[in-house]
Write a structure and sequence with these properties.
about 300 residues; alpha/beta; 2 domains; 6-stranded mixed sheet; 5-stranded mixed sheet; 11 strands
Length: about 300
């Protein structure tokens, strides 16, 4: 039996919609789309969503509502993550979603975010001809947070940390290009988050690193030498730690204008890709894992799959 579902993931940097048909555990895309809305812009300083960020996000949601109406999914879930947890004007955001979609957003905990990321990332990769070795450390580098999840068939330990590509850019990487002092300050924050992750997750047990989200996939696209973004080529690719380290250094040394000229670079990632790459680089250095397996499937797919296993 085919069940059509719709999943929306509203993060710090982007909002994404997946409408999919799921049958016997196989997920088939009907619609998969993303808009960079930078909902979390300035939140690290102000503690609230700006009116401009809300307007961008609500405009994207109105477009998503039309697609959902057109494709008629049986089940719909809207999930909001890091940026939405602690803002002072959260009710304004929630009311805006409800009025446009007819459903309330679920502002999920970091733990549930980690579980959904693991579910989405591993469902496809474990069925490849040469699957990554278990246990897996799944790392989801978002705009405001990074999740660390260890597991094999499911998560056994997880933590959400408050480092992400938008947060680190706004907090530290202000200059164009970033100065050595700014990069050092960002590394200190990232390493503190990794220290925290080690306290909650037995990271040393991991045999494979699986990387998710736009920072990871964009760095992979650059490493693969792609002239434009190609999700099929990116999904399941394996990028070595030395390549990640080299590309991170190159991105941090570039000006914004130079990054904008890179073929696979989405306009909404130009400002934050350096810090996102730096988070990945520090994780690989600190864990000693020699490569990252890149997944185009992530929390969005986990939300969709969760609508089948937990339809309520």
């Amino acid at each position: 039996m085919i069940v059509r579902v719709a999943a929306i993931d509203c993060g710090t940097n982007s909002i994404r919609l997946l409408i999919a048909d799921i049958e016997n555990g196989t997920l088939t895309d009907v619609v998969r789309t993303m808009v960079i809305v930078r909902l979390g812009e300035g939140v690290d300083k102000t503690g609230e969503f700006s009116q401009a960020a809300l307007a961008r996000t609500f405009a994207a949601i109105e477009t998503f509502a039309l697609l959902i109406s057109q494709h008629q999914p049986e089940r719909v879930r809207f999930v909001a993550t890091s940026a939405s947890r602690d803002v002072s004007n959260r009710s304004e955001f929630m009311d805006g979603v409800l009025s446009r979609l007819g459903i309330e957003p679920d502002i999920i905990s970091g733990d549930e975010e980690a579980e959904l990321s693991f579910l989405g990332a591993t469902a496809d990769l474990v069925n490849e001809q040469e699957p990554p070795a278990a246990p897996y450390l799944v790392v989801d580098i978002g705009g405001g947070s990074t999740e660390f999840v260890l597991g094999t068939t499911g998560p056994t330990a997880a933590i959400s940390t408050n480092v992400g590509c938008v947060r680190m850019t706004e907090r530290h990487l202000i200059s164009d290009p970033a100065t050595p002092q700014e990069i050092a300050a960002a590394i200190a924050d990232i390493d503190a988050a990794i220290d925290l992750a080690y306290q909650s997750v037995p990271i040393s047990q991991a045999h494979s690193l699986i990387g998710l989200a736009g920072s990871v996939t964009t760095v992979a696209a650059i490493a693969l030498g792609l002239s434009e973004y190609d999700s099929i080529a990116i999904h399941g690719s394996r990028i070595s730690a030395p390549d990640i380290h080299r590309i991170t250094g190159e991105l941090l040394a570039m000006t914004r204008a130079q990054r904008a000229k890179l073929g696979p670079m989405h306009e909404g990632r130009i400002d934050v890709i350096g810090s996102g790459a730096l988070v990945l680089d520090r994780i690989m250095i600190r864990t000693g894992l020699g490569e990252v397996v890149v997944s185009e499937r992530d929390i969005l797919d986990g939300i969709a799959r969760g609508l089948i296993s937990n339809p309520s």
